[in-house]
Structures are given as C-alpha cells and as structure tokens.
Amino acid sequence: MTILSPIKSKNTLLLFFLIAISIKSFSQQEVKLFYNAQWEITNPEFASYIRKASYDLNNFKLDGKVIDSDTQGNIIGEGEYTKGKRNGYFKWYYKNGQVKKEGEIVNNRMTGTWRYYYWSGQLKQVILIKKGNINNNFVVTDFYDKSGEPLISNGTGKWMVDSVKYNLFSHDCICRLHGTFKDSVMHGTWKAVRISDGKLIHSEQYRKGKYISGINNSGFSNDYGVPTSALLPKSPFNNHSHFTKAEKFILDEIAFPTTLVENDVETIFSTVTGVKVEIKNRPAGFKYGDYQLMSFIGQNLNYPIGALSKGISGKVYVSFTIDSNGQTKDYVVIRGVEESLDKEALRVVKLTKDWLPKITNGEPVESKLTIPVNFVRK
Hints:
Layout: E1 2-3, E2 19-20, E3 28-35, E4 41-42, E5 49-56, E6 61-70, E7 75-82, E8 85-86, E9 88-93, E10 99-106, E11 109-117, E12 123-129, E13 138-144, E14 150-153, E15 156-165, E16 174-182, E17 185-194, E18 200-207, E19 210-216, H1 241-247, H2 265-273, E20 285-286, H3 290-300, H4 305-309, E21 314-322, E22 328-335, H5 339-351, E23 355-356, E24 358-360, E25 363-365, E26 367-375
Antiparallel strand pairs: 1-2, 3-4, 3-5, 5-6, 6-7, 7-8, 7-9, 9-10, 10-11, 11-12, 12-13, 13-14, 14-15, 15-16, 16-17, 17-18, 18-19, 20-23, 21-22, 21-26, 24-25
C-alpha cells in the first residue's frame, strides 16, 4: 500500500494522500521548497529553511535525495527517500558544519550503527540498533565525554543523555535519561529525571538486559511490572524532528490563502513548488489519506465478541470497484479469517466515502482496490 505525503494546514488535513496497491510509472522532479521556523511550507520572504528534494509527481511522494539547509546555505540534514519513506544514509549537522549524528534508516526506522558527535567534532557515542527492531531498543557500545575520555567501552559503563521528551507523561517534560550498560545490555537502575526541577519521572530495573520492573512518578499511573511496560529503551532516538515535520507538508497559513485547500492536488502542488503538474497516471485512493482511512476504520470497527473470546484474530482483505466518477461498488471479501470478522470488515469498508478514481493517460478510469482490515487482540 502506497501513501502520498499530505498537505496540512493547522486546522485542515488536505486531500493529499492516495492509497494504492501498486504503482507502475514514476515521474521524478527536483523541487525547491521554503519553510518557516516551524517547518511549515511558506514563501521565500518568510523562509528560515530551504529544502531541495526529488518528488515522484505521479504520487507526490518524496523519492530520491533530500537536502535541507538554512537560508545562509548551511546544510542541516540530508538523506534518501524511496516512495515516501526514509531509506538510506542520513546525516544531521550543527550550525558550524560539523556532523551531529549519522546512520542508516530503513522504512523510517533507524538501524545498524549510529554515530553521534559533539559540536567540536569529537565523537560522543556509538549506538547499535538491531535491524528490524520495532521497539528501537539500543546498545551504546562506546560513549565519551567532551574531552574524549571514554565513559563506556566495548558496551560496558555509565551512560547519560539530555533532552529526552516524554510526551506520554507531560507535554513539556524534558528529561535526563541515565543508566548502566554491562556487556552491551542494560543493567541495574535506569532513570528519567526532569531537568527543570530534578524530579524523578520514570525508573526501570534491568538484569543483564532483561526488563524487571518500572515505576512511573509522573502522576499518570502507578507501579507496574510487565515486560510490555518498558519505556526507556524506546525513547532517546526517535525524534527526527525537522525531517518528520517537513514530510507532513504543512502549509503556512500566513503565506497561503485558506482557499488553496479547496483546490485539486495538481493546483496545490504547483502553487507550492512552482512546478507545472498534470497527472497522466495515478492509482485510485482515499481522498483524505491513508492515516484518515485507517483512523476511520479503527473508530468504527467492532470486534465480534465470539471471535474475541475464542482468540481469533487476523487480517481481512476487502476488495471493491471505484468507477471513473469515484463511486464505489462490488464489495467482496477476497481473503477472510472467520465469518463474523469477515462480515464486520465488509460492513466497515462499505461505510467509507470520498474516493478518487484511477487516472490512466490523463483520463479517469474504473479500477479495483483492496483494503486490509486488521483485527488485533489487545
């Protein structure tokens, strides 16, 4: 399933996502985008940052090299995209031109060896994230102070990082996370302490890499001790703030009129990039995007009690036809799990409205689309 990058104002999600099962043709175009200080797309006179990027104009997805810099020409970050996802080697930079951190990202997830540096260029730490690790658990193999003195060597020693934001607990909770690695695994007590007042926000106990228990002092929950409650390993390295914000294609409402959101995709993209776009080929898709579609399905889906009590779960695939006017028909379950789940998935998919037709050689045509509906026991 392929998803377009969205354009979004502060209050309005634009019709800028499309969903497709496959895409057969690509039309790449290098574009230059201007961003304000909040990484909202703006006009050059309001710009704080500039992005040079390669887009697939059939689907309005980032596809190729991306370089972000400030208006003085200093590079902030760079990397590679494939079909709208970060895939390749990425670098972030300090304002003095020194590399801040670098490493590989696959399908928007950090993987392998990542290196972090101080402003001076001195190596700060080497992080190892296992490939395919959905929880972003990490090992710090080497860690140095600003003078180059090793604090962790070969995966053993004490570690600390500031500016860890715990949105689960408090919007403004910036913490210092510290703990000990022993033989390349977390060991002993790990703590997140709020920098503003020194309050202990969260602590966890580990024994040779195994999570034992955790205590949350944020005021939102009590002591807990199940493995799924381990939060600290997931927190320090998930924030790719400017890349993530820029991917959302948010419009600066001061620079662009609100009437722009009412236009078609081609007009929006052409206005923002200055590139003349005429869609020759486009897969059919949901008008408001993949995220909105999945959100709608999740809000309206009822897990059949009988199937839930029996522990039955899985994905139901519902296929239907979208005609040249965007109207839907011929709904059918092409791969089911169990009768009650199949019926519920069919019911929910039929509730969806506002589909965009497939375009072939510049003309809207009838096509089929398949949507997976996932029943997950929690």
